[in-house]
Design brief:
With 189 residues, this protein is mostly helical. It has one domain. 71% of the residues lie in helices and 0% in strands. The protein contains 7 helices and no strands. The protein has helices spanning 2-17, 22-32, 38-52, 54-82, 113-129, 136-153, 159-187.
């Protein structure tokens, strides 16, 4: 069963990865670049500041730092626990894929930290700010899905890597939102 799942994952990856074309490569590289989202993060902080004020925004930043650290470290634990080669390091399929960009990333790829981090941020801020900016949550989810898909497009993650990253991002984003609300209720009312 596991072998069948992995085989289908590889087939889906090859299909999705080969849908790309050079005219779109730059856009997907930009979407996947962690630094390209910095203005977006500042906008989220601005919205947070407008809704909660400076002190609670500072606490929000601390929560987000821990959230990102947790998703990154969980991803690293899985990568070195499962030791599943990234598609761009898999010699059995490397000739079938499009590697977009100059580097492949680390040797192992299960699961995608990009997918986990972007989804966790989307869920956390989407829930946090949904009362004041009701359209923000869907926009954040679309952004997280684009970042997640970019990892397949670029040739550095299988769909299962991305799906698992999204799943962990959903869980951690929701849990951190719940912890944040409980923290505010207990210590900052």
């Amino acid at each position: 069963m596991i072998d069948s799942l992995i085989s289908r994952d590889i087939e889906l990856f090859i299909y999705l990865n080969n849908l790309g074309s050079t005219q779109w490569d730059g856009i997907w590289l930009f979407i996947s670049n962690k630094y390209s989202a910095i203005p977006f993060y500042f906008l989220l902080l601005y919205f947070t500041y407008k809704q909660f004020g400076l002190k609670k925004t500072f606490v929000t930043v601390l929560f987000v730092i821990v959230l990102i650290a947790l998703t990154d470290q969980t991803s690293n634990l899985f990568k070195f626990g499962f030791k599943r080669l990234r598609p761009c390091h898999n010699e059995n399929i490397s000739y079938l894929i499009r590697l977009v960009g100059s580097r492949c990333g680390g040797l192992y790829g299960y699961f995608s930290a990009h997918a986990a981090n972007s989804t966790a941020i989307a869920v956390f801020f989407g829930l946090l700010l949904r009362r004041k900016i009701n359209y923000l949550f869907p926009v954040l989810i679309v952004w997280a899905l684009l970042v997640s898909y970019s990892r397949i497009y670029l040739g550095v993650h299988y769909p299962l890597d991305v799906f698992t990253g999204i799943l962990f991002g959903l869980i951690y984003g929701y849990l951190f939102y719940a912890f944040f609300k409980a923290f505010l209720k207990k210590f900052m009312n």
